[in-house]
Amino acid sequence: MTDDRDPSVSTADGFPTGSGGHDPEVLRQRALDALLTARARTATLTDSVDDGELTAQHSPLMSPLVWDLAHIGNQEEQWLLRAVGGREALRPEIDGLYDAFEHPRAARPSLPLLAPAEARTYASDVRGRALDILEGAPLHEGGRPLERAGFAFGMIAQHEQQHDETMLITHQLRTGPVALTAPAPPAPTEADTLPAEVLVPGGPFTMGTSAEPWALDNERPAHRREVAAFHLDTAPVTCGAYRRFIEDGGYTDPRWWAPEGWDMVREHDLAAPLFWHRDAGQWLRRRFGVTEPVPDDEPVLHVSWYEADAYARWAGRRLPTEAEWEKAARHDPATGRSLRYPWGDTDPTPEQANLGQRHLRPARAGAYPAGRAPSGAGQLIGDVWEWTSSDFLPYPGFVAFPYREYSDVFFGPGHKVLRGGSFAVDQVACRGTFRNWDLPVRRQIFSGFRTARDA
Questions:
Q1: Cα 276 to Cα 257: distance, rounded to the nearest angstrom
Q2: Helix (H) or strand (E) holding 243
Q3: Are residues 105 and 203 in the same domain?
Q4: CB of 402 within 8 A of CB of 410?
Q5: Cα-flanking dihedrals φ and ψ of residue 9, to 5°?
Q6: Same domain, yes or no: 240 and 94
Q7: 347 within 8 A of 319, measured Cβ to Cβ
Q8: Is residue 206 within 8 Å of 262, Cβ to Cβ?
Q9: Interstrand relation of 412-419 and 452-454 (parallel, antiparallel or unpaired)
Q10: Is residue 97 part of a domain?
């Protein structure tokens, strides 16, 4: 991991102005808050269903919820108790059971997993010891790389929140009575007056970060990119717009599809986004156990990269590159700087972005005017993960840290980059530089998209 500072990044320490920067005690409190927030959400996701639901595999694409629960504890033990704290292993015999690379998801129900009560006790025991270590860990600038600025604690909070999102996907896939509820997101106040697209001027900008203390290895280092001028949708593509693609024969016309995507459509007889079905002439969807009409003005959700790419071709447009997306989200032409978030340097508020499972759906297109970027584009953070046209590749100067398996082993043309986060993402695991990636066939994730065109 590089410690280079880039003068075009808006804050020297990567935290909001006035947060205390790299002051160890401020960092300690920030890490504590992030860990406690993640654990409270994990409890919500696992306490809302019975033990049978926790141990069941609701889809071969996903692990049983109880696997995620114990895996969260095991990763925390390995990195905070053993690596940072130098403590003796609590449960070394289970490391292999909860190694995500050793056992594919479809095979995990057959493993001798910890039962729900034992998994909860294990994760709680690890957490208590981890908080003791946090209390005394030296988080100063010159400390060990894992401890510096509280990186390991931030990494583990992000890891738990990422698995919380994974568990929320499992909740969406499960059948049975409703287990989770949440209020609707705020309605847009000026959606009808927004332009369909914004112009992002050409020129260089700073992509990635070398300053954000808890940025993961694939976000680093900060580097200059030249991006030609382009137009970008002001908001993500809506269900209503996507429905017009369906009704125009989008799923029956191979002209719009990449060859592998067309093969996917035919093999699985696809005709709409995942969880949509047609009944009595109306499009309905299933959302966390509730069947409801598809809302035309909400960003489309649960579409694969192939579906997003096909829609863009049908519309005479294209998916933005990852660099285009980040420039639209972060570049401030007035100062030439790259911001932490579209709205500036401060952490997200409920008025700026739909994050943290606060709402169990995207907000309608045009919501969150306070969260718009200098480019004029909105809802770039939260609501839906946005597919880009880019393969997941390392930045120039990339260094794997603290382990190759987080990013390095996924680089290549097999995975496409998603940006921006969804309503299921917590702010600790979502920022203007954060990179997500997945296979182009994935539909169960909370993915949508917006389109672009050359200027």
A1: 20
A2: helix 239-247
A3: no
A4: no
A5: -80, 140
A6: no
A7: no
A8: no
A9: unpaired
A10: yes
Comparing CA positions, the residue from 234, 205, 243 lying closest to residue 222 is: 205
- Written as six digits, the tokens of 388 are 């880009």
Owner of token pair 């863009």: 312
Query: Of 173, 201, 216, which residue sits at a domain end?
Result: 173
Average pLDDT over residues 16-43: 83
Structure tokens at 206: 């700073």
Burial-class residue 119 by CB neighbours within 10 Å (0-12, 13-18, 19+).
Answer: buried
> Are 285 and 335 in the same domain?
yes
What residue numbers bound the domain in which 266 lies? 183-455
- The answer to whether 308 and 442 are in contact (CB under 8 A) is no
Residue 150: closest CA among 215, 197, 195? 215
Q: Give the chain's mean pLDDT.
A: 94
Contact 200, 230 (CB under 8 A): yes
Residue 286, CA atoms < 13 Å, CB-side half-sphere: 15
In the prediction, which pLDDT does 8 show?
A: 34
pLDDT tens by residue, 189-199: 876 789 999 99
Average pLDDT over residues 398-423: 97
Q: Are residues 151 and 206 in the same domain?
A: no
Alpha helix locations (H) across 271-409? 305-314, 322-330
Helix axis angle, 305-314 to 259-268, nearest 10°: 110
pLDDT tens-digit profile of 311-364?
Answer: 999 999 999 999 999 999 999 999 999 999 999 999 999 999 999 999 999 999
The total number of residues written for the chain in this structure: 455
82: pLDDT strictly greater than 70: yes
Using a 10 angstrom Cβ sphere, with 0-12 exposed, 13-18 middle and 19 or more buried, the burial of residue 186 is: middle
Do 200 and 128 share a domain, yes or no? no
* Sign of the Cα pseudo-torsion (133, 139, 142, 144, in order): positive
Q: What CA–CA distance (Å, rounded) separates 350 from 368?
A: 9
Residues 254 and 398 grouped into a single domain = yes
Tokens of 450: 């917006």
Q: How many domains does the chain have?
A: 2
Last residue in a domain, options 119, 147, 173: 173
Looking at residues 242-270, what average pLDDT do you find? 98
pLDDT for position 205: 98
| Sign, CA torsion 423/410/108/96 | negative
